[in-house]
Amino acid sequence: MKRLVALYRSPSYSPLQHLTNDTAIMDATVARLAARGWRVEKALELDVERGSVPAAELFVNMCQGPLASERLAPVEADGALVVNRPSSVLACHRHRLVRLMVGSGLAFPRTLIVHTRGELPEHELGELFGAEARVWIKRGDVHAERPEDVVSVHPAEVAGALQAFGTRGISWAAVQAHVPGPVVKFYGVADGSFFRWYGADAGATAPPPAVDESKLRKLAFAAARTAGLEVFGGDVALPAADRPVLIDLNDWPSFAPFRDDAARAIAGYIDERAGLR
Predict the structure, then answer these.
(1) Helix or strand holding residue 198 (H, E)
(2) The CATH number of domain 2-84+260-275, selected from 3.40.50.20, 2.160.10.10, 3.30.420.40, 3.40.50.11540
(3) 3-class state of residue 250 by DSSP
(4) Could you read off the pLDDT of 164-178 as tens digits, one per residue?
(5) Please, what's the b/e burial string for 151-180 (b: 16 or more CB within 10 A of its CB; e: otherwise)?
(6) Which terminal residue of the chain has fewer beta carbons within 10 Å of its beta carbon, N or C?
(7) Can you name the residues that pair with 150 across neighbouring β-strands?
(8) Average pLDDT over every residue of 131-154
């Protein structure tokens, strides 16, 4: 029987209700893979960090921290299939993601990566604000672990906000220009078998904002390919319905509003990927 190891994300990277939702999408996915003939073993991100990684042909990977990804890199190099790959997870850490997206030419807001205890580049910072009265400050490594990890501030508040990040042990932060317009959350699987989106403010059950879905889809999948992600999600701002701008990209989100359909698509994609090796 084919063997897979399901690697569950550390609670520190699944704040608030995300812990339940992240666990649920992994459980639903591996249940469908088990129905396809895979023998499933479960492990925690902490196990990976400690170097305790069982042998298997397939690793279904929700680990998000840098140490776990570094531990998984040799496993992938030895020939195991890892979805998502550790390199793609690391690519989503914000200080890397910003450079990737800027280099890709995709629609992405002006963003500075700054040291939270360093001097601010005042000229560049001034250009970030433009006509807007606020900017976003986001922790520069992993995605938000708590609400304070992503804040919107006025120009005079930037230094204090960065100091607060530094006090919490966060060395780097992204200072990002605000993109006006509604925000859309999207979810996808690399083969295109699954793509869903909804308005972030109103939620998945409310009428969505006006958007050119073909352009939204094109941007989302191009960003995922740039980072090497196979199971992904993110956020797009819409200054105009036909002008989506990527503001965040996530490795393996919870897919909570569409869990059953997402689990079916992810499992089918992973099983096919394994069969093609």
Answers:
(1) strand 195-199
(2) 3.40.50.20
(3) strand
(4) 999 999 999 999 989
(5) bebeeeebeebbebbbeeebebbbbbbbbe
(6) N
(7) 138
(8) 82
